[in-house]
Amino acid sequence: MAGANVIEITDANFEAEVLKSDVPVVVDFWAVWCGPCRAIAPIIDQLADDYNGRVKVGKLNVDQNQKTAMALGISSIPAVFVFKGGEVVDRKIGAGPKSAFAGLIDRHVDEAVA
Fold first, then answer.
1. 34 counts as catalytic
2. Could you tell me whether strands 87-93 and 79-84 are parallel, antiparallel, or unpaired per DSSP bridges?
3. Which of 24, 26, 55, 88 shows the greatest Cβ crowding within 10 Å of its Cβ?
4. Which pLDDT band holds residue 114 (cuts at 50, 70, 90)?
């Protein structure tokens, strides 16, 4: 379902994959029933390919992983969060063009690479 470079984030692996990651992590919070979530899915896959090796990209199904979604206060999806050093450093709520999500990532990747 997700692209080859997109990892599945769950309540069980959230800490290891996201909070303890040594690279920035982009997490797409989504659900099967969410039309805008399905609309941005190909964009998330493209970003995972574009930023492969510099950023980790994952998807968290909010219906299957309610503990993490509730802990982060996710009340509207799609919600794309950028984590760096275990902290939320940026977020975009709702759908948008690829450039909007790439800009979100670029603000934090360039710092990591510099």
1. yes
2. antiparallel
3. 26
4. very low
**Does residue 19 contact residue 86 with C-beta atoms inside 8 Å?**
yes
Band (109; pLDDT cuts 50, 70, 90): confident
- Of the residues 37, 41, 44, 105, which is catalytic? 37
114 annotated active-site: no
pLDDT tens track for 52-104: 999 999 999 999 999 999 999 999 999 999 999 999 999 999 999 999 999 99
- Enumerate domains of the chain plus CATH numbers: 6-113 (3.40.30.10)
Q: Which of 18, 34, 55, 80 is catalytic?
A: 34
CA separation for the pair 59, 44 (Å, rounded): 9
Q: Is 105 helix (H, G, I), strand (E, B) or coil?
A: helix
